[in-house]
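WARN no homologs supplied; continuing
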Amino acid sequence: MADLLLVRHGETEWSRSGQHTSWTDLPLTGHGEEQAKSLAPLLTGRTYALALSSPLSRALRTAELAGVTGVVPDAGLHEWDYGGYEGVTTADIHRTRPGWDLWTDGVPPGPAGHPGESPQQIGARADRVLARVGAALAEDAGDVVLVAHAHFLRVLTARRLGLPPAEGRLFQLATGTVSRLSTEHGRPVITEWNRRP
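OK structure emitted
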Protein backbone atom coordinates (compact mmCIF):
# COMPACT_ATOMS: atom_id res chain seq x y z
CA MET A 1 0.00 0.00 0.00
CA ALA A 2 1.06 3.59 -0.59
CA ASP A 3 2.51 5.78 2.15
CA LEU A 4 1.28 8.97 3.75
CA LEU A 5 4.10 11.53 3.91
CA LEU A 6 3.85 14.40 6.37
CA VAL A 7 6.01 17.46 5.79
CA ARG A 8 6.30 20.18 8.40
CA HIS A 9 7.15 23.53 6.85
CA GLY A 10 10.57 25.07 7.33
CA GLU A 11 11.50 27.50 10.07
CA THR A 12 9.79 30.88 10.49
CA GLU A 13 10.70 33.65 12.94
CA TRP A 14 7.92 32.53 15.28
CA SER A 15 8.68 28.81 15.09
CA ARG A 16 12.23 29.73 16.07
CA SER A 17 11.04 31.86 19.03
CA GLY A 18 8.35 29.38 20.12
CA GLN A 19 5.41 31.70 19.44
CA HIS A 20 2.12 30.00 18.58
CA THR A 21 1.53 30.62 14.88
CA SER A 22 -1.77 29.82 13.26
CA TRP A 23 -3.29 32.35 10.88
CA THR A 24 -0.38 34.82 10.95
CA ASP A 25 1.11 34.20 7.51
CA LEU A 26 4.83 34.45 8.17
CA PRO A 27 7.41 33.66 5.49
CA LEU A 28 10.17 31.12 5.93
CA THR A 29 13.45 32.40 7.30
CA GLY A 30 16.58 31.90 5.21
CA HIS A 31 17.29 28.81 7.30
CA GLY A 32 13.70 27.64 6.72
CA GLU A 33 14.18 27.94 2.96
CA GLU A 34 17.37 25.87 3.18
CA GLN A 35 15.52 23.26 5.27
CA ALA A 36 12.80 23.06 2.62
CA LYS A 37 15.29 22.69 -0.24
CA SER A 38 17.10 19.93 1.65
CA LEU A 39 13.93 17.82 1.68
CA ALA A 40 13.87 17.43 -2.11
CA PRO A 41 15.81 14.11 -2.15
CA LEU A 42 13.23 12.64 0.23
CA LEU A 43 10.22 13.82 -1.78
CA THR A 44 11.08 13.98 -5.48
CA GLY A 45 10.98 10.91 -7.67
CA ARG A 46 7.85 9.58 -5.98
CA THR A 47 4.46 9.19 -7.60
CA TYR A 48 1.81 11.12 -5.72
CA ALA A 49 -1.85 10.24 -5.96
CA LEU A 50 -2.56 13.39 -3.96
CA ALA A 51 -0.41 16.34 -2.85
CA LEU A 52 -2.05 18.79 -0.46
CA SER A 53 -0.75 21.82 1.40
CA SER A 54 -1.99 24.26 3.95
CA PRO A 55 -2.91 27.47 2.10
CA LEU A 56 -0.45 29.49 4.20
CA SER A 57 2.68 30.72 2.44
CA ARG A 58 5.14 28.94 4.75
CA ALA A 59 3.68 25.56 3.78
CA LEU A 60 3.23 26.34 0.07
CA ARG A 61 6.78 27.68 -0.16
CA THR A 62 8.14 24.58 1.57
CA ALA A 63 6.34 22.36 -0.94
CA GLU A 64 7.71 24.42 -3.84
CA LEU A 65 11.30 24.42 -2.59
CA ALA A 66 11.14 20.70 -1.78
CA GLY A 67 10.14 19.97 -5.38
CA VAL A 68 6.63 18.64 -4.71
CA THR A 69 4.60 19.31 -7.84
CA GLY A 70 0.85 19.37 -8.35
CA VAL A 71 0.20 20.65 -4.83
CA VAL A 72 -3.38 21.69 -4.09
CA PRO A 73 -4.03 24.11 -1.20
CA ASP A 74 -6.52 22.69 1.31
CA ALA A 75 -7.90 24.82 4.15
CA GLY A 76 -8.36 21.63 6.18
CA LEU A 77 -4.58 21.53 6.67
CA HIS A 78 -4.47 24.95 8.36
CA GLU A 79 -2.71 25.04 11.72
CA TRP A 80 -4.67 24.79 14.99
CA ASP A 81 -6.50 28.09 15.58
CA TYR A 82 -4.76 29.33 18.73
CA GLY A 83 -7.38 32.03 19.34
CA GLY A 84 -6.16 34.49 21.96
CA TYR A 85 -2.78 32.75 22.18
CA GLU A 86 -1.71 33.63 18.63
CA GLY A 87 1.85 34.98 18.75
CA VAL A 88 2.27 34.06 22.44
CA THR A 89 4.81 31.55 23.77
CA THR A 90 3.95 28.76 26.19
CA ALA A 91 6.30 30.34 28.75
CA ASP A 92 4.34 33.61 28.57
CA ILE A 93 1.02 31.77 28.93
CA HIS A 94 2.32 29.96 32.01
CA ARG A 95 3.02 33.32 33.72
CA THR A 96 -0.73 33.98 33.94
CA ARG A 97 -2.06 30.43 33.64
CA PRO A 98 0.34 27.99 35.33
CA GLY A 99 -0.10 24.40 34.25
CA TRP A 100 -1.85 25.31 30.99
CA ASP A 101 -1.59 22.57 28.35
CA LEU A 102 -2.75 23.05 24.77
CA TRP A 103 -3.56 19.35 24.44
CA THR A 104 -6.05 19.27 27.29
CA ASP A 105 -7.05 22.89 27.93
CA GLY A 106 -7.44 24.36 24.45
CA VAL A 107 -7.25 28.11 23.95
CA PRO A 108 -9.32 31.23 24.73
CA PRO A 109 -11.13 33.04 21.93
CA GLY A 110 -9.11 35.48 19.86
CA PRO A 111 -10.11 38.37 17.61
CA ALA A 112 -13.12 38.18 15.28
CA GLY A 113 -12.88 35.18 12.99
CA HIS A 114 -10.49 33.35 15.31
CA PRO A 115 -12.50 31.72 18.09
CA GLY A 116 -9.78 29.16 18.79
CA GLU A 117 -10.12 25.39 18.47
CA SER A 118 -10.40 22.68 21.09
CA PRO A 119 -8.49 19.40 20.73
CA GLN A 120 -11.78 17.77 19.71
CA GLN A 121 -12.42 20.35 16.98
CA ILE A 122 -8.93 19.97 15.53
CA GLY A 123 -9.38 16.19 15.70
CA ALA A 124 -12.63 16.41 13.71
CA ARG A 125 -10.85 18.51 11.08
CA ALA A 126 -8.01 15.99 10.90
CA ASP A 127 -10.58 13.20 10.45
CA ARG A 128 -12.06 15.02 7.45
CA VAL A 129 -8.59 15.33 5.87
CA LEU A 130 -7.92 11.66 6.60
CA ALA A 131 -11.15 10.64 4.85
CA ARG A 132 -9.88 12.36 1.69
CA VAL A 133 -6.40 10.87 2.17
CA GLY A 134 -7.84 7.40 2.76
CA ALA A 135 -9.75 7.46 -0.51
CA ALA A 136 -6.57 8.41 -2.40
CA LEU A 137 -4.47 5.76 -0.63
CA ALA A 138 -7.08 3.09 -1.30
CA GLU A 139 -6.68 3.62 -5.04
CA ASP A 140 -3.01 2.63 -4.62
CA ALA A 141 -2.01 5.00 -7.41
CA GLY A 142 0.83 6.52 -5.43
CA ASP A 143 1.73 8.09 -2.13
CA VAL A 144 -0.05 11.02 -0.52
CA VAL A 145 1.93 14.02 0.75
CA LEU A 146 0.62 16.65 3.17
CA VAL A 147 2.62 19.85 3.75
CA ALA A 148 1.41 21.61 6.86
CA HIS A 149 2.05 22.60 10.47
CA ALA A 150 3.32 20.90 13.61
CA HIS A 151 0.28 20.74 15.88
CA PHE A 152 -2.14 19.90 13.09
CA LEU A 153 0.08 17.10 11.74
CA ARG A 154 0.58 15.74 15.24
CA VAL A 155 -3.20 15.51 15.76
CA LEU A 156 -3.61 13.99 12.30
CA THR A 157 -1.01 11.35 13.18
CA ALA A 158 -2.81 10.49 16.39
CA ARG A 159 -6.12 10.14 14.55
CA ARG A 160 -4.53 8.03 11.78
CA LEU A 161 -3.23 5.67 14.47
CA GLY A 162 -6.67 5.47 16.10
CA LEU A 163 -5.74 7.63 19.11
CA PRO A 164 -7.65 10.57 20.63
CA PRO A 165 -6.65 14.01 19.27
CA ALA A 166 -4.84 14.99 22.49
CA GLU A 167 -2.42 12.09 22.02
CA GLY A 168 -0.77 14.20 19.32
CA ARG A 169 1.25 15.47 22.29
CA LEU A 170 3.32 12.30 21.97
CA PHE A 171 4.68 13.14 18.50
CA GLN A 172 7.12 16.06 18.62
CA LEU A 173 7.59 17.40 15.11
CA ALA A 174 10.56 19.56 14.08
CA THR A 175 10.58 22.16 11.31
CA GLY A 176 11.73 21.07 7.86
CA THR A 177 11.17 17.35 8.33
CA VAL A 178 9.44 14.46 6.58
CA SER A 179 7.58 11.74 8.46
CA ARG A 180 6.06 8.63 6.93
CA LEU A 181 2.99 6.69 7.96
CA SER A 182 2.44 3.31 6.39
CA THR A 183 0.64 0.09 7.28
CA GLU A 184 1.66 -3.19 8.82
CA HIS A 185 -0.76 -6.14 8.80
CA GLY A 186 -3.48 -3.74 7.70
CA ARG A 187 -2.95 -1.30 10.58
CA PRO A 188 -1.52 2.23 10.32
CA VAL A 189 2.02 2.58 11.74
CA ILE A 190 4.76 5.19 11.94
CA THR A 191 7.56 4.11 9.61
CA GLU A 192 9.78 7.22 9.89
CA TRP A 193 9.57 10.34 12.02
CA ASN A 194 11.31 13.75 11.85
CA ARG A 195 13.55 12.65 8.99
CA ARG A 196 16.02 15.03 7.46
CA PRO A 197 18.48 14.21 4.67
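The longest strand covers residues 187-195.
OK
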